[in-house]
TrEMBL record:
Transmembrane segments: none annotated. This is Class II glutamine amidotransferase. Gene3D superfamilies: Glutamine Phosphoribosylpyrophosphate, subunit 1, domain 1. The keyword Lipid metabolism does not apply.
């Protein structure tokens, strides 16, 4: 299982400052979640750029370079813990996407091909790796390409998985577009992962800061209430850079 963090701000910051005090405790999770890392940022021309590597976040200079030199007002960062049997390589490293959007997932579902009919052969042909997470992204992308806004696209893709998968531990994910950062949370409370990790493991929490930032993240370091707010199950949080508007969408 993976770890996620995303942030938006009123102004542009280097990524290290965008994630600020949450960055180092988040990166400490790479000691366990060490099968790759990836970032995605919104760039000034309104597109999305991603950088990723199939290595532990502390093992090379590239991540530090990205954190110090890449600047944005909206970004996400993913630490991968590969599901058993899935190769640790660049094609399976999050985030997935292109210049329009980037997607990172924490969880798994089986079988991997349960979404293939939803995605369709044309979009499925664009897949680079073998993960269920990339299929989740492609299902969201199919809905967006068909005209849905990202909030509804995330919810409908999650519905598709829930209806057809044999099991699904978690569908937690972040989606970055040129307009906003989106977070969706859902997990199976009876998952064996919960038995091992505890009931809060799949929680997503978010907060705003006095210096004009908003952050959403997986658990793994102290996130006390009321500073941090729990994102309800099966809800989407939309975070707007610039205005710092945060809206929670349910069904």
């Amino acid at each position: 299982m993976c770890r996620l963090i995303g942030a938006v701000s009123r102004q542009t910051f280097p990524l290290r400052d965008l994630f600020a005090d949450d960055l180092e405790p988040f990166l400490e999770l790479a000691e366990e979640h060490g099968d790759g890392w990836g970032t995605a940022v919104r760039v000034p021309d309104g597109t999305v750029e991603a950088v990723k590597a199939p290595e532990r976040a502390h093992d090379g200079p590239l991540l530090n370079t990205v954190l110090n030199l890449s600047e944005s007002d909206a970004a996400l960062l993913h630490l991968r813990m590969a599901s058993p049997g899935l190769p640790v390589d660049r094609t399976n490293t999050h985030p997935f996407g292109d210049r329009d959007m980037a997607f990172a997932h924490n969880g798994d579902f089986v079988p991997v091909d349960v979404l293939d009919t939803v995605i369709g052969p044309d979009l499925l042909a664009s897949a680079h790796g073998t993960t269920d997470s990339e299929r989740f992204y492609l299902a969201v992308r199919r809905r967006v390409d068909d005209g849905l806004d990202p909030v509804k696209a995330l919810m409908q893709a999650a519905d598709d998985i829930r209806a057809a998968a044999e099991r699904s531990a978690s569908l937690n994910c972040l989606l970055l577009t040129s307009e906003a950062l989106y977070a969706y949370t859902e997990h199976d409370p009876h998952s064996v992962v919960i038995d091992r990790r505890g009931t809060g493991y799949f929680g997503l929490r978010y907060r705003t800061t006095e210096d004009g930032r908003a952050v959403v993240a997986s658990t793994g370091w102290p996130q006390p209430s009321p500073e941090w707010t729990h994102l309800p199950e099966r809800h989407v949080l939309r975070m707007s850079p610039g205005t710092l508007d945060l809206t929670v969408h349910g069904r």
